[in-house]
Amino acid sequence: MDVLVVYLLCSFFLYLIFLIIFPRSSRFNFRKLGLPPGNLGLPFVGESLQLISAYKTGNPEPFIDDRVNRYGSLFTTHVFGEPTVFSADPETNRFVLQNEGKLFESSYPSSISNLLGRHSLLLMKGGLHKRMHSLTMSFANSTIIRDILLDDIDRLVRLNLNSWTDHVFLQDEAKKITFEVTMKQLMSFDPGEWTEKLRKEYLLLIDGFFSLPLPFFFTTYGKAIRARKKVAEALRAMVRERRKESEGEGESNNNKEKKKKDMLEALLGDGEGGFSDEEIVDFLLALLVAGYDTTSTIMTLAVKFLTETPLALAQLKEEHEEIRAKKQSSSAALEWSDYKSMPFTQCVINETLRVANIISGVFRRTTADVNLKGYTIPKGWKVFASFRAVHLDQIHYKEARTFNPWRWQQSNSGSMGGGSTGTGNVFTPFGGGPRLCPGYELARVEISIFLHHLITGFTWVPAEEDKLVFFPTTRTLKHFPIKVQRKHRLA
Ligand code: HEM
Ligand SMILES: *[C@@H]1O[C@H](CO)[C@@H](O)[C@H](O)[C@H]1NC(C)=O
Ligand SMILES: *[C@@H]1O[C@H](CO)[C@@H](O)[C@H](O)[C@H]1NC(C)=O
Question: Given the CA of residue 411, which atom of ligand 3 is nearest to it?
Fold first, then answer.
C-alpha cells in the first residue's frame, strides 16, 4: 500500500504541473481525434486506481457500468500505464478477436513477457504463431483427450481426492490437480516430489504476473523472476534428458509404442530444423501458466456457486449419480461416453465461466488506424475487449448478474433468443479468432471430471464464509475452505 500512496502523491504533483503547463483548452480532445469519448484520469496512473479499487470488491461492475452509461459501450480510459479504448460491445470484441494479426496484435507489458519468456505461444506472432497454435490445439483436441488424456485426468483427480482430510482448501487442491494434469499432458510426468517442488516455485512465478514490476530481491516480482529461473532450469534439465533418450531410441530401434506421446515429444520431433532447448522451455512454461490458474479457479467457483444454489447442486448430483449407477464399482474410471452424458454439468460450467470471467478480456494493440463504430483508433493504441462487460450485460442475459445454470438449457448461447443482437456469439470465455484458447475442451473435461468425483464421493459445507474478489485475479479470498465428508474411497 505504501507504494501506492507514494505513487498517488507523485501523480498529484505531476498533475498540478501538467495543469500549469497545459491550459485547459489544449488538453485531450477525444472528438477531434475521432476517439470514443471518455476520461483519461490522472497523468500516469490514469483511472487504474479506480479500476483496482472496484475489482478488489465483490462487485466491480460499477466501474464499467458508470462509464458505459456516460459514454456508451466504447469509451476511452487510461489503465495500466497507457490510454486504452475499452470495448463493452460484443460486435467490436468479435472484430478485434477475428482481426488478430491483421489490424490488431496481442500485447503484454514487458514485466509479463519477461516472466513468460520470449518464445511462449502468447507472445509469438505471424506464421510461427499460426503453426505453434495449431500444434498446441492438436495436443488438446477432443481425439487426444478421449484416447489419452481422459484416463490420466480421471486417475489424477481421484488420487487427489483420496488424499483429502475432513478439512480442505478447495482452491489449493484444485490447483494441484490442474498442475499435475498439465505436467502429464506436456511431459508425461506423474506427480511426485519433483513436480511438487516445481509447483511451489510455480506459485511464486504466478504471483509475479499480478504484482508491481519492481525487480528487487524482496518484492513479489523479484521473487517471481528468481522462481522463473529455477523452473526454467528444471525444465531445461528435463528437456536435455528427453533429447538423449529419444536419440538413443532412434539408434537402437524405432519402437513407436515405447515413445511418449506428449507435447514435449512433438516439440523435440518437429522437423523444419527443430526447436532449441530455450524455445521449448519457454513454450512449455507458458502452457503451464495458461492452463493452471484458470481451470482451477473455475473448478473452485463452480463448487462455490453450486453450494449457494442448492437446487442446481441437487440437479447436478442426480446427473452424476445416474452415471455412477451404471458403473460396476464406485471407483470405476469415467469414459468419454460418460463425459458426453453430462448436459447439465456443461450448463453449470458455462454459467460459472460467464459469471466469474476469470479472463475478463484481452488487450490488443492496433497495427494501423482502425475504424470502429464511427470512431478512429490511431495506430499503436491499446484496445481492451472486455468479455466481462458483455457477459454481465442485462441486454444479452436476463438477470445477468445472478448464477442461473438453467438459462443454458433454453439456448446454447445462454443469451436471450431473438434479443436485440440476435446472435449467439456474445459468449467468449475462451476468446476467439487466431488466438482462441487451445485448452477450451481440455478445461471443460477437467472441470467435469472433478465435479463428478467430488459430487459422487463427498458431501461438504463451507468451513468459513469466503468472498470472491477480482483483483489481481479472480479468486476466493480464503481459498474456499470446506469441511468434507467422504461417502466412499475413489481408489
Ligand atoms: C477455464 C479455463 C480457461 C480459460 C477461461 C481460458 C481462457 C483463455 C483465453 C480468453 C485466451 C485468449 C487470450 C487472447 O486472446 O489473448 C486463452 C489463450 C490461451 N490458453 Fe486458455 N483458458 C483456459 C484454460 C486453458 C488450458 C487448460 C490450457 C492448456 C492447454 C490453455 C492454454 C492457452 C494458451 C496456450 C493460450 C494462448 C493462445 C495464443 O495466444 O495463441 N488454456 N485462454
Ligand atoms: C486431433 O489431433 C490429432 C493429431 O494430434 C489428429 O490426428 C486428429 O484428427 C485431431 N482431431 C480432431 C477432432 O481435430
Ligand atoms: C457452452 O458454451 C459453448 C461456447 O463456449 C457453447 O458452444 C455450448 O453450446 C454451451 N453449452 C451449453 C450446454 O449451452
Answer: 14
